[in-house]
Amino acid sequence: FLYGSTVLGKTNLVQAIGNELMKNRPYAKVRYMHSDDYIRSFMNAVRNNTYDLFKQQYKQYDLLIIDDIQFIKGKDRTMEE
Hints:
Layout: H1 10-24, E1 30-34, H2 35-47, H3 51-59, E2 63-67, H4 76-80
Parallel strand pairs: 1-2
């Protein structure tokens, strides 16, 4: 988790981490996404009863980067996942 005020470069830093992993491990599976997309994906899985597929989808990655993770605060079930 990276925490800090706005405009400090957290997004650039997490993207650089992902890029460095892919440079050093070309076959690594890296996924970068915004927390809104993760929340939407989770809610769709719950709504469509495809929760197991949701879990499988994210387990395939060597590195999962979720930007602006603070937006998950208060969404207990999403936070747990």
